[in-house]
Amino acid sequence: MAKFNPWEMACSQLDTVAQKIGLDKNIHAKLRRCKRALIVSIPIRMDNGSVEVFEGYRVQHNLERGPAKGGIRYHPDVSLDEVKALAMWMTWKCAVVGIPYGGAKGGVVCDPSKMSIYEIEKLTRRFTSEISIIIGPEKDIPAPDVNTNPQIMAWIMDTYSMNIGYSAPGVVTGKPIEIGGSEGRLTATGRGAMFVIDEALKYKKIKPSDCTVSVQGFGNVGSATAQFLRELGCKVIGVTDVSGGLFNKKGIDIPKLLEYVKSSPAKSIKGFSDGDFVSGIEKANEELFNLEVDILAPCALENQITSRNAAKIKAKIIAEGANGPTTPNADKILHDNGVMVLPDILTNAGGVTVSYFEWVQDLQSHFWRPEGIDKELKRIMTKSFADVLAIAEKEKCDMRLAAYILAVSRVATAVKLRGVYP
Ligand code: NAD
């Protein structure tokens, strides 16, 4: 079987919507390429004295609607094509929720679980220095993604600030609150996903208290999504992470699991006493996807729901916390089976939305209260859901195509207005 290529998948999603809306062929050709891609080498002196050279990327897909925005991922499977796809998806995501950014993404090929905290700090600082020629508060603003966190964002902010000679908190979002981070950013992606799911449940006339949920991935996005859905009244009966899966038909105690993961040395769900544990990531995910649930939230990585497993999924709603978890072939199967897929570019846009709030606060040096953040996030997420649903109903298409119609049309309008330079 051909190896999964996220960039090809992202382009095929764009091609589908381009055909549907009759996109101008010149604009289509432009959007099929990334504006800028920087490949950097990152030599680091490891704790044992040896020097290891890592490869990193920062890609800006499109800047027509504003400065570039997108997270930084540390993972052994990072590739240029993956970062390009994630950058393109960021362009659409910012457009769906109507925030004035273009799309970018960054990544370093590394396995942080095998590195010390000092090595991760050095890697982060050198990577920041290398990409500092294209990032900046008015140019391109990174944020957290897989295996990166507020501490790493603090090092990015500090390194960039040291190089320019003054503090520039607006260069990165997802920072700790003490150095210009925003209230609510840490859990924003999960909270935003909950608002979107809540709207979908209302649309389908399902009561949250009647809902069961399974969540793939228990990191930043997965754990917060599980937590907020539980607060909404849903019962989370299955969770997986890199260590395996946890299942409990009576409902997993998510706050306790969160505490457990935080305090466990491996920062994983393995060893939690309440529920049945299944070892082995593939077996655990298979069991998770086959669970009889109302909502399945893939919140780990791309290429998880494919033509191999889509037909077996019993969930009524799939809420994509992760970026690109469902392949186009799987999309067709799910659509035919009547599964409502809440697409990534809508469902997980809460993270970039609160990142935008953080950036605005940094630029103004004026910080909002948590209630203000949550209220504004809810307003944007529920409005975006309604906008996408209205298109889906008008065009008689699924929510992904509807979200793409909205996003690509907005970006295409910006491209047309700005014209071709020179
Ligand atoms: P994270 O590093 O905090 O967590 C990733 C989680 O997924 C971990 O629990 C890990 O153990 C688990 N995982 C990895 N591979 C897995 C597999 N094959 N099966 C099951 N679990 C697996 O990362 P995150 O920030 O939560 O990001 C998760 C996804 O959400 C990514 O697709 C990311 O691009 C997307 N996303 C993140 C944000 C954000 O604000 N952090 C915003 C929007 C989208």
Separate helix tally: 14
**What portion of residues is helical?**
40-55%
Which CATH class of one domain is shown? Answer: Alpha Beta
**What ligands are attached or bound here?**
nicotinamide-adenine-dinucleotide
Number of strands: 12
CATH architecture of one domain: 3-Layer(aba) Sandwich
Strand order of the largest sheet: 9-8-7-6-10-11-12
Please outline the major beta sheet: 7 strands, mixed
Shape: globular
Radius of gyration equals 20 Å
The CATH homology group name of one domain: NAD(P)-binding Rossmann-like Domain
Alpha-beta classification: alpha/beta
End-to-end C-alpha gap: 44 Å
Helix and strand succession?
A: HHEEEHEHEHHEHEEHEHEEHEHHHH
The CATH topology annotation of one domain reads as: Rossmann fold
Instruction: Identify low-pLDDT runs.
Output: none
Q: How much of the polypeptide forms β-strand, as a percent range?
A: 15-25%
Mean pLDDT across every amino acid position = 97
Describe the structure.
The protein has 14 helices and 12 strands. By secondary structure, the chain is an alpha/beta fold. Strands 9-8-7-6-10-11-12 form a 7-stranded mixed β-sheet, sandwiched between helices. The chain has a 5-stranded mixed β-sheet with strand order 1-2-4-3-5. Helix 1 (about 5-20) runs parallel beside helix 3, helix 1 crosses helix 14 (about 400-420) and helix 13 (about 370-395) packs across helix 14 (about 400-420). It starts with 5 loop residues before the first helix and ends with a helix. Bound molecules: nicotinamide-adenine-dinucleotide.
